[in-house]
Fold each of these.
Amino acid sequence: MTRLGRTALPSLHGVRTPAYDPSGVTVGVVHLGVGAFHRAHQAVYTDAVLAADPTWGISGFTQRSAAVRDQLAPQDGLYTVLERGAGAAPPQVIGALREIHTPDACGGPAARIADPRVRLVTLTVTEKGYRFAGGHLDLTDPFVRADLATFPQPPTRSAVGRLVAGLELRRRADAGPISVLSCDNLPANGATLRGLVADFCAALPAGDRLMDWIAASVAFPSCVVDRIVPSTTAADLAAVAAALGVRDEGAVVAEPFTQWVIEDTFAAGRPAWETAGAVFTADVAPYEAAKLRLLNATHSLLAYTGALAGHDTIAAAMTDPVLADAARRLMTEDAAPTLTLPDGFDLPGYQESVLRRFADPALGHRTAQVAADGSLKLPIRLLGTARDRLAAGGTPQWTALAVAAWMVYVATRGPVDDPLAETLAAAADASSAASLVDSLLPVLPSPPDPVWRDLLVAHAGRLLHDN
Ligand code: CS2
């Protein structure tokens, strides 16, 4: 079967194709981490602006592997987004990714960031890609140390090292201001990334000069991203081939829902992403807390309790009335009281839409995928709610259920997919519920509160008994 590529475009039917000539697009964005999420989210918004402004093409770098490069480079960077679920639109071929590299190619991302035509760096490197520990850059991390030792020379290994090396080359080249936009599920992702960049600069011998330039020339807007994008399977690729009549090795599958709320504080212009429905606002913090504490927290609850109950997918977990009820109550009883919502935010509508999205069986989003990297995700999604509810004299039952389910998952399903997998496996003591909680609690920045510990022990006891 023919492979998707520029020459195949005219023969495609029933598919949306780029409304511009991809060969006329120049690169204005460097993206770090060209995973499925980037391809189904930011690249789709960017695709919508290129007909009117072809200066915002994306130069994408993988984090390590050559897999995505090998999927997309032979296809002229073109790939399909296949929506699945209620209200799905026809498949869409995206042309926004104009270059795809591994990080060791072409002088690495740093050389690309120093190009004056580039005005924006975006990142989707997942929680663990930021290499933070206790709110700061982990200077003991081997990748971070290697990048500091050879700075700013390639090959760089960490996302922050790559970014800061690029900013240094840009400063030296006098290539002008630039914006850096983290698109990961972190609280205050812009300010957080800026802090990690400052930590990296502080560890450099002459980092002050660079940090001064960054303070004057680089903006770090925060944003909230939302779209469920499972890993692509062989069956998905077969479905795309059947729909297109050509083979597409780089296709991604996503739910129809998509949302992007962005702080409009860019230093060197930005794509008109509002064309595709992005919302620009002065302060994303209320949206971000709502998304992390309502959607992502509930996702993790369903992932761990669902996996323990033998459910392969989030939608299967939602068919269990006990788990669906826990998911609803985590939002209404634990998370909602801790939130300061944006004006006009429809809380009941948001909660219902989260549950509806999770329950849609078309996506096949695996509990194991959402369960990955819990040691980094739980503090961001669940522990803030626990802390706030406890401080208000409340009992965060459902939040405790999610954390206890993670503990039992770690102890009974390990070694888990987590950067701390070895530490967790060595620490977990499942001889009793109390010892399990006491052995794993120190791994998390957990509230030192006896009420919280009692809640965890009670839930862990029930879950251990059932597993
Ligand atoms: C999920 C998120 O894998 C996970 O941890 O909770 O990736 C989730 O699908 C997205 O944040 C939805 O926007």
Amino acid sequence: MRNLVLFGPPGSGKGTQSAFLVKHYNLVHLSTGDVFRFNIKGGTELGKLAQSYMDKGELVPDEVTISMLEQEVEKRPDAIGFIFDGFPRTTAQAVALDKFLETRGVSIESMLALEVEVEELKKRLLARAETSGRVDDSNLDVIQNRIDVYNAETAPVANFYKTAGKFKSINGLGSKEDVTGRLVAAIG
Ligand code: B4P
């Protein structure tokens, strides 16, 4: 089973690149952000809870996110592998994911970390806001908070995969196709 973690700051291209990689490798795409947005749209209790954090650029609490992620994996017993997009975002989530996969006799193959400088991230998110209608993309203070939360809580997750020898750094600048080419070369 091929399980990949696509990692990087907000706007680094995780969702964009996942769309290509799932087709290329025939994997299931699991974006925690997409699942939260689906629930917000549907007005579920989970959606209401998630929205109160997402609109401010904060992370949704670990226990909620971890249990949701596990349920999503369990819905796909047919999968030959997953792309985890936007998960794990904290070290506690990374530890929980490892344990969960271990109970299923599988593991993460590698973490692919998209590296993009801050000014480019802001530019991309503000451009997306024009069409996405996402509250968390349209306000520069919220974007800055998302980047700060990433640096404080999410960036350290890379060390977890570095220690395990599974970390791969990918230059996320350039055209979407250029970035895809680098990812495919790194995945092999
Ligand atoms: P996500 O949905 O994961 O949102 P994101 O980080 O903004 O998306 P992504 O990185 O995939 O966007 P992309 O660059 O592809 O998370 C949203 C929120 O959900 C979080 O802030 C948090 O509140 C919550 N959440 C999610 N997961 C969680 C977890 N595990 N724990 C707790 N909370 C969680 O796209 C950005 C734009 O850039 C697009 O417009 C795209 O077209 C453009 N772009 C991409 N590649 C480009 C390139 N090479 N050149 C130019 N533009 C490019």
